[in-house]
């Protein structure tokens, strides 16, 4: 290889320029190879020859030599790198030869782009001094030097700390240069210098610019200083924030000064600076936002050369009366008019506020929305597009939010405020005015304007969840025009998409009179060659098909349109050569047409279409979509005759159940269920057996949702054809079911489907299979398997389903047998546990008061097995549900008299109250709680100060569940309990509220009293504060609407943050013989406080002061407990993803605690558990580092960058960083890694 390289060097000395060019090209290719390593002498020769040819007489050779520098720089050692840099820098400052300056500039930019942090010092050493000389030289030289200097500062500014003061001193005066190009380059360079400048130098930089701007006389200088400040804000807004209180008043003064009202460039620069401050300085800009919004609203209509006399109609009378302070009655000429730049900058500034300040939604609706609507009259299309975009942002911010999230909507007692908007928002939205303004713009000649209008309407529908019924007459003609054959493709797609959404979100609207206007163009679009248009048009046909009005099909008496629509859809369905999106849309639309209009389409068309659907089902790319379409047809009320494909479809579905594709199996099971439910009578035994065989493998705990669908299908088959399927179930499915019941994972809908299957089996077999099935279920325990409580509960529920499906005599006999077994002292404990669960499950549904079950259960309380005691407690509470009048008084009496079993009896009472709460409330009659409420409450209140913490916990749960049943009766008594002197009583009362604030919580009643409970966060006793924190977390998670109003108070968040702080007075020392052990009583409080903060971050982020939240979170990164550090890491990752601007402000302060954890070593004698905990903590810290590093502009924070580079230089830490980066994708996924 050395010989080859030497040969190329010889050729580079050839007289023929083509030979020199080819030799340089080959040399570059050789240097790019990873296997090439240059010896010292050869390295020097290569560098020398390439630098020589930078001055070659041939331009092509020179250009190739410059390109070769990138390859060369990666191979050579530091001395040669210095030589290259020195030569290129010398070329740049050449005052006479412009071609050399060009070559030097290109070469040096190339060099800067390929060197790394390790090799960069060699380049900086040679280049920086010459650049400092160059920027003071001639204009052209200075421009070259400033461009290179900017690249160096951006890439290696942290390595140039010594040179920064001198560089700053050199370039700042150049901001006053009379040459605009120089000022622009210096401004960019200053912004890059601000990234790496130390704090003191940065402060000096900003102060110098600020003073200079105040002293500047020339408008050009002032504009340059404003541009520079905006550039610094975009680069390091988090550092500039503290200076805003000086900068913004000056900029506002410039905007309001009469002498600058016609200086378009200055006004534009000021508004661009405001936009940058809003985006990059979120914390400090808050107090200035009102002024910025007002300034932007003023200049959004800035047009001094144009008198706006446009009549906006009756709906804008107010707008006509408003005088435009910038209007001029003189003649207008569009030549050289650039006032639109000011309006554009003003709109962008407003858009920045809209996107970043959701908490200002109400104020934005009141002040900004009307002005944006008025400015629809904007004559410059660029500005008009930005106005539409800003309004679109405003509507998007409204989705999923409320302008007044603290309000309790009377119509929504659940308090679930994320799915509806209060009337205040709708009224502020002024739908009528907005739609009329949009409708007027739809007449505009510009297709871009029409597209933006349709986008706005689409966002409006999503915000209102419909709401445009009254405007259909005005909207439909414009939509029809937008989907005409001559319309632009993008406009047609947008119009069809909007029409599809319009039909979807207005299910009861009368579109029948609009079908004639829209139908022909929609059908023509179906046949369009553009796949996007065709696919959306097909979806519109589907919406037309399923739409109803007045409870009837929309397409009534539209036989010809229906036939044409069928023909168009079938043409797309039957075509092979088309995009997948079109194929899928055609399949789904055809399924809807057959299911809804099959009686009109006619048998002949169906017989031609159904085989095509079957063919699509057999195609791998369209089979899932085809399954959905066939399921739609099967569920049709028209009972469509699909006999020609029914058998084949079922066979195909059966084969799909073997595939390793979850979505396919799920769709196949759902389709089979629909087919058998509708056409079960026409399916033969062999087909049922084929399906049953394939279902066998799906009945397992590996995928419970598929298990649920499989069992649901089995139940359907038994219901539709019991004679054929009962025996098949016993042969194929039941063995798998008996194994499944032993799994502790079985729960939810899968277990419910299993219960339904057992009930159907008994009913289908007329009870003949009852004893056999019962024996098989009980036999699971007889087999000697040690089962979990969850498994025993699942078996018991299936037994209950069996008993519920047979005659009373059978059930009574079964229960009598259970009692005999339970009364046998020598019986197996696990069988007793199962039978107790069985008795409880049966007792939930039937009155078992005729049996003396209480004696059997009380005897079970004496068992040595804790599982038996728990099963007995569960059984007693459950049978009380079916016979309250007998068993509730018994439970209450035993609680008072049997102190030994009080905890178990309270569990029984809890079970009863829980069942009653889920059953719908207190009830009436002899089997209700109404007559016992006073007794129950008094008993529970007496137990609130029990010495047994387990009893108190159970009492709290009982009280909380009772409050769900009778809130007006229970909550006042709980409120009275929190005023008592007993610490235990107060803690129990507060803790009980946790069990009240669930999905079905009485929000209105809780809203009146929750403040009193949460104020106990100031209680003197740890036990009470711990209960309050638990309740606060639960309330925030389940009903955030209850907490949001309290976040604005001056006590809740400060108290919460206070509990997250490490407190030395809560640490005590315990003597353990010769050793002393420190016990941190505040550790649990800190964990609970951080958990509550985490939930607030998830549920109420808009109401939090992110800066204050982050300040308290920072301190927890240095907590003594690893659990607390990990909780802090998790929240920090969330904030880094959601609020990166705030996190970037404190990024440097986060570096030290993270570095401490990452560099910490375990002791040599550490246990495996300690090592594992240490590794887990380090991994969490590294995930946090990776997330923070992915934030925009994280490289502008010096300490963090230094820490990150130290990680890369440590082999072990670098491997850990690569591991967490490979295991996660994107910032959000990294945050969720926890």
Architecture overview:
InterPro entries: ARM-like, ARM-type_fold, CAND1/CAND2, HEAT_type_2, TATA-bd_TIP120. Belongs to the CAND family. Keywords: Repeat, Ubl conjugation pathway. This is TATA-binding protein interacting (TIP20) domain-containing protein. It is a single chain. This protein has about 1250 residues and is an all-alpha fold. It has a domain at about 470-565 and about 580-585: Leucine-rich Repeat Variant. About 70% of the residues lie in helices and about 0% in strands. The chain is built from 62 helices and 4 strands. The strands form 2 sheets. A two-stranded antiparallel ribbon has the order 1-2. Strand 1 (about 550) and strand 2 form a beta hairpin. Helix 1 (about 1-10) packs antiparallel against helix 2 (about 15-30), helix 28 packs antiparallel against helix 29 (about 605-615) and helix 48 runs parallel beside helix 51. The chain starts with a helix and ends with a helix. Residues about 310-335, about 400-425 and about 1225-1234 have low confidence and may be disordered.
Based on the model shown, name its key terms.
62 helices; TATA-binding protein interacting (TIP20) domain-containing protein; ubl conjugation pathway; ARM-type_fold; HEAT_type_2; repeat; mainly alpha; two-stranded antiparallel sheet; Leucine-rich Repeat Variant; about 0% strand; about 1250 residues
């Amino acid at each position: 290889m050395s010989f080859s390289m030497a040969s190329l060097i010889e050729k580079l000395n050839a007289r023929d320029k083509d030979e020199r060019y080819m030799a340089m090209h080959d040399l570059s290719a050789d240097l790019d190879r990873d296997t090439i390593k240059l010896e010292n002498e050869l390295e020097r020769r290569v560098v020398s020859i390439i630098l020589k040819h930078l001055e070659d007489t041939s331009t092509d050779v020179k250009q190739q030599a410059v390109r070769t520098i990138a390859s060369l720089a990666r191979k050579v050692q530091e001395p040669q790198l210095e030589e290259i840099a020195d030569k290129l820098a010398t070329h740049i400052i050449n005052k006479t030869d412009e071609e050399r300056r060009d070559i030097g500039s290109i070469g040096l930019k190339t060099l800067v782009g390929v060197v790394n942090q390790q090799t960069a010092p060699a380049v900086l050493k040679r280049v920086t001094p010459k650049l400092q000389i160059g920027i003071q030289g001639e204009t052209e030289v200075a421009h070259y030097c400033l461009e290179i200097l900017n690249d160096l500062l951006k890439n290696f500014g942290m390595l140039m700390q010594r040179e920064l003061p001198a560089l700053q001193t050199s370039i700042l005066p150049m901001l006053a240069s009379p040459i605009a190009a120089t000022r622009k380059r210096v401004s960019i360079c200053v912004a890059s210098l601000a990234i790496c400048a130390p704090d003191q130098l940065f402060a000096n930089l900003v102060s110098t610019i600020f003073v200079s701007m105040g002293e500047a006389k020339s408008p050009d200088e002032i504009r340059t200083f404003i541009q520079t400040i905006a550039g610094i804000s975009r680069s390091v807004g988090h550092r500039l924030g503290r200076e805003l209180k000086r900068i913004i008043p000056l900029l506002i003064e410039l905007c309001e000064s009469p002498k600058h009202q016609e200086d378009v460039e200055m006004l534009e620069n000021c508004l661009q600076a405001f936009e940058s401050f809003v985006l990059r300085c979120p914390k400090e800009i808050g107090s200035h936002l009102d002024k910025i919004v007002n300034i932007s609203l003023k200049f959004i209509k800035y047009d001094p050369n144009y008198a706006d006399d446009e009549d906006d109609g009756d709906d804008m009378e107010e707008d006509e009366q408003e005088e435009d302070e910038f209007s001029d009655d003189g003649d207008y000429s569009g030549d050289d008019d650039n006032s639109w730049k000011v309006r554009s900058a003003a709109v962008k500034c407003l858009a920045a506020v809209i996107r970043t300040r959701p908490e200002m939604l109400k104020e934005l609706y009141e002040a900004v929305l009307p002005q944006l609507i008025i400015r629809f009259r904007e004559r410059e299309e660029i500005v008009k597009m930005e106005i539409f975009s800003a309004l679109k942002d405003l509507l998007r911010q409204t989705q999923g939010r409320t302008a007044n999230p603290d309000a309790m909507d009377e119509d929504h007692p659940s308090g679930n405020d994320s799915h509806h908007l209060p009337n205040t928002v709708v009224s502020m939205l002024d739908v009528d005015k907005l739609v009329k303004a949009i409708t007027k713009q739809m007449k505009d000649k510009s297709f871009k304007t029409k597209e933006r209008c349709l986008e706005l309407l689409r966002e409006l529908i999503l915000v209102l969840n419909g709401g445009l019924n009254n405007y259909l007459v005005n909207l439909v003609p414009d939509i029809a025009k937008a989907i005409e054959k001559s319309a632009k493709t993008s406009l047609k797609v947008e119009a069809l998409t909007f029409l599809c959404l319009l039909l979807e979100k207005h299910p009861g609207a009368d579109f029948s009179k609009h079908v004639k206007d829209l139908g022909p163009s929609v059908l023509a679009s179906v046949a369009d060659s553009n796949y996007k248009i065709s696919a959306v048009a097909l979806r519109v046909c589907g919406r037309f098909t399923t739409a109803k009005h007045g409870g009837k099909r929309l397409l009534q008496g539209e036989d010809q349109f229906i036939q044409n629509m069928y023909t168009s859809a079938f043409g797309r369905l039957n075509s092979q050569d088309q995009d997948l999106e079109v194929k899928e849309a055609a399949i789904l639309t055809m399924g809807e047409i057959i299911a809804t209009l099959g009686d009109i389409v006619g048998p002949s068309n169906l017989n031609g279409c159904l085989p095509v659907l079957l063919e699509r089902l057999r195609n791998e790319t369209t089979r899932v979509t085809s399954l959905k379409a066939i399921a739609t047809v099967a569920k049709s009320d028209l009972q469509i005759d699909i006999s020609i494909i029914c058998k084949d479809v079922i066979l195909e579905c059966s084969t799909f159940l073997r595939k390793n594709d979850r979505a396919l199996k799920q769709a196949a099971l759902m389709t089979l269920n629909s087919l058998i439910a509708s056409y079960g009578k026409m399916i033969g035994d062999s087909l049922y057996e084929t399906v049953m065989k394939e279902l066998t493998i799906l009945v397992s705990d590996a995928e419970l949702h598929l298990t649920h669908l499989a069992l649901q299908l089995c139940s359907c088959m038994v219901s539709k054809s019991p004679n054929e399927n009962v025996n098949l179930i016993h042969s194929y499915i039941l063995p798998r079911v008996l194994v499944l019941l032993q799994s502790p994972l079985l729960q939810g809908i899968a277990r419910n489907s299993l219960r339904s299957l057992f009930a159907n089996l008994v009913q289908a077999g007329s009870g003949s299979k009852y004893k056999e099935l019962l024996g098989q279920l009980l036999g699971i325990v007889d087999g000697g398997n040690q089962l979990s409580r969850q498994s025993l509960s699942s078996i018991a529920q299936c037994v209950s389903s069996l008993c519920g499906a047979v005659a009373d005599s059978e059930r009574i006999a079964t229960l009598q047998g259970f009692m005999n077994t339970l009364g046998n002292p020598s019986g197996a404990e696990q069988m007793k546990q199962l039978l107790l669960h069985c008795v409880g499950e049966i007792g939930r549904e039937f009155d078992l008061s005729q049996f003396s079950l209480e004696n059997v259960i009380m005897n079970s309380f004496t068992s040595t097995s804790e599982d038996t005691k728990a099963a007995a407690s569960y059984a007693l509470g459950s049978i009380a549900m079916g016979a309250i009048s007998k068993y509730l008084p018994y439970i209450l009496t035993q609680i008072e008299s049997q102190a030994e079993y009080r905890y178990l009896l309270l569990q029984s009472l809890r079970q009863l109250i829980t069942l009653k709460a889920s059953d719908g409330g207190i009830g009436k009659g002899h089997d209700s709680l109404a007559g016992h409420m006073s007794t129950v409450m008094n008993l529970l209140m007496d137990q609130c100060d029990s010495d047994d913490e387990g009893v108190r916990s159970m009492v709290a749960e009982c009280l909380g569940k009772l409050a769900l049943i009778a809130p007006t009766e229970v909550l006042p008594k709980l409120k009275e309990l929190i005023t008592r002197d007993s610490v235990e009583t107060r803690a129990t009362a507060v803790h009980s509220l946790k069990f009240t604030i669930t999905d079905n919580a009485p929000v209105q009643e809780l809203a009146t009293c929750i403040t009193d409970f949460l104020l106990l966060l100031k209680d003197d006793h740890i036990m009470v504060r711990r209960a309050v924190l638990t309740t606060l977390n639960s309330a925030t998670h389940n009903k955030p609407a209850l907490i949001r109003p309290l976040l604005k108070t001056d006590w809740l968040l400060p108290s919460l943050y206070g509990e997250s702080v490490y407190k030395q007075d809560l640490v005590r020392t315990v003597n353990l013989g010769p050793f002393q052990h420190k016990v941190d009583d505040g550790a649990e409080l800190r964990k609970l406080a951080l958990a509550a903060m985490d939930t607030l971050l998830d549920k109420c982020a808009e109401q939090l002061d992110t800066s204050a939240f982050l300040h308290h979170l920072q301190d927890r990164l240095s907590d003594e407990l690893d659990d607390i550090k990990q909780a802090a890491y998790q929240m920090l990752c969330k904030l880094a993803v959601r609020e990166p601007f705030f996190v970037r402000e404190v990024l440097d302060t986060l570096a030290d605690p993270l570095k401490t954890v990452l560099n910490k070593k375990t002791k040599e004698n550490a246990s495996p558990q300690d090592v594992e905990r240490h590794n887990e903590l380090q991994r969490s810290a590294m995930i946090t580092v990776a997330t923070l590093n992915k934030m925009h502009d994280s490289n502008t924070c010096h300490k963090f960058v230094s820490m990150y580079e130290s990680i890369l230089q440590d082999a072990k830490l670098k491997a850990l960083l690569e591991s967490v980066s490979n295991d996660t994708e994107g910032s959000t996924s990294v945050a969720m890694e926890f």
